[in-house]
Design the sequence.
């Protein structure tokens, strides 16, 4: 079910009905303060159109909420985190058709980005931008190399490990961003060499050995037109076994 299409359609229909009703009253030279039509469809349209329009504007051009459904971004994002995604950082796109009408910034290495899955645009994924257009990305022996340069990795001291239950965690320097990554020595590591085509991005999850990302054919390189926005903040975190995780609420996504 395409929620965005349904929302935009309801907004357009309610706006059309409310507009036609207003035009009808003006043609009849009705008083502007006259009692509104008793038609229930018209009444609902007049009531809900401003609310629906506000939701469409905010959700399409400013911020959209998402829920993290899997552990591919552990330890940065946990299952049950609810995040806000900035929709205008990389430019303004029209809802439903996703045509870019204003261009602002390009994604930077290290950004946590939501995108539509190239093989199924109806599905949203969230990963970290690792490779930019033209980059050569190599993942070997659980280490990341970009254009022949190894990305610095610093193992966390025992007293710094906030996610011990998630396995081995280290801090990786990716561009300007220093962020945690997790590796699982009990699982096979997906390795390879990838050359990022023009207009595309190479995405990886921070949970390196448990992430279906650009290393896999299902995802592959992500074209610019599939970008949804940049993850910016956790507004709620709900572990269904331990209730709300208050310490995570309000944290920036880095």
Sequence:
């Amino acid at each position: 079910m395409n929620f965005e299409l349904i929302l935009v359609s309801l907004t357009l229909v309610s706006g059309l009905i409310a507009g036609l009703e207003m035009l009808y009253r003006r043609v009849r030279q009705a008083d502007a303060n006259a009692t509104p039509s008793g038609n229930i469809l018209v009444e609902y349209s007049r009531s809900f159109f401003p609310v629906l329009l506000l939701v469409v504007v905010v959700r399409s051009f400013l911020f959209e909420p998402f829920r993290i459904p899997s552990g591919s971004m552990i330890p940065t994002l946990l299952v049950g985190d609810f995040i806000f995604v900035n929709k205008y950082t990389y430019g303004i796109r029209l809802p439903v058709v996703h045509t870019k009408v204003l261009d602002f910034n390009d994604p930077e290495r290290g950004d946590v980005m939501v995108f539509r899955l190239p093989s199924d645009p109806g599905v949203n994924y969230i990963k970290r931008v690792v490779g930019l257009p033209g980059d050569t990305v190599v993942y070997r022996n659980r280490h990341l190399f970009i254009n022949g340069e190894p990305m610095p990795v610093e193992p966390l001291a025992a007293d710094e490990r906030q996610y011990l239950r998630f396995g081995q965690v280290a801090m990786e320097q990716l561009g300007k961003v220093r962020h945690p990554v997790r590796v699982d020595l009990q699982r096979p590591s997906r390795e390879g060499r990838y050359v990022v085509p023009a207009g595309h991005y190479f995405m990886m999850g921070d949970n390196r050995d448990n992430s279906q990302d650009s290393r896999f054919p299902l995802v592959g390189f992500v074209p610019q037109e599939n970008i949804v926005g940049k993850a910016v903040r956790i507004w709620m975190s709900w572990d269904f076994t331990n209730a709300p995780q208050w310490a995570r609420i309000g944290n920036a996504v880095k």
The chain has two domains: 3-62, 68-248. Confidence is low (pLDDT under 50) at residues 159-164. The first helix runs from residue 3 to 27. Residues 3-62 form one domain.
